[in-house]
Amino acid sequence: LYILARTRNAKLVVEFGTSFGISGIHLAAALRDAGGGRLIATELGPIKAERAAHNFRAAGVSEVIDLRVGDAFETLKSDLGGGIDLLLLDGWKEAYLPMLRFLEPTLSPNALVVADDLDIAPEALAPYLAYVRKPGSGYVSVEMPLGDRIELSMRG
């Protein structure tokens, strides 16, 4: 994630499903190390969000993170302050496609979309994968055999 954010020269990153903040730390470090930017991290559960905030402070990256607690479809309604350069989908698997469609109008040209955990819920992710892999969808997409497998897509 660090390498993707750095090579994309991301200025705005959105993370759907922060959990305890491990991925967010890598994304925020990339933004910080590149000279600035902002990670909007979303987490539905307040206990997980509290732990993520603690981890962000401990890692020294909290200054570039806007942690939003609650339903991401609500917390991401407000102005994001620019186009999304990198979107990490790592929350509720059934919401990947609705979240992508919700945020598509705010994706920057050539935005990267990373969908994590393909092995965790293949049936739930089938509609998402069909969408980003469909010819003419506006995405170039490839599966990466990392961890529980990820789908890396670029919005053309």
Explained architecture:
The chain has 156 residues and is of the alpha/beta class. It contains 6 helices and 7 strands. A 7-stranded mixed sheet has the order 3-2-1-4-5-7-6, with helices on both faces. 39% of the residues are buried. The mean pLDDT is 96.
| Share of β-strand residues | 25-35%
Radius of gyration from the alpha-carbon trace, in angstroms? 14 Å
What about the largest sheet?
7 strands, mixed
Q: Strand pairing plus helix content: what structural class?
A: alpha/beta
Overall number of strands: 7
Encode the helix/strand succession as letters: HEHEHEHEHEHEE
Name the average pLDDT.
Answer: 96
Tally of contiguous helical segments: 6
Major sheet strand order = 3-2-1-4-5-7-6
Q: For the record, give the distance between the C-alpha atoms at the N and C termini, rounded to a whole number.
A: 20 Å
Please state the oligomeric state of the protein chains shown.
Answer: single chain
Which descriptor suits the 3D outline?
Answer: globular
Q: Which bin fits the share of residues in helices?
A: 25-40%
User: Low-confidence spans: pLDDT under 50, at least 5 residues?
Assistant: none
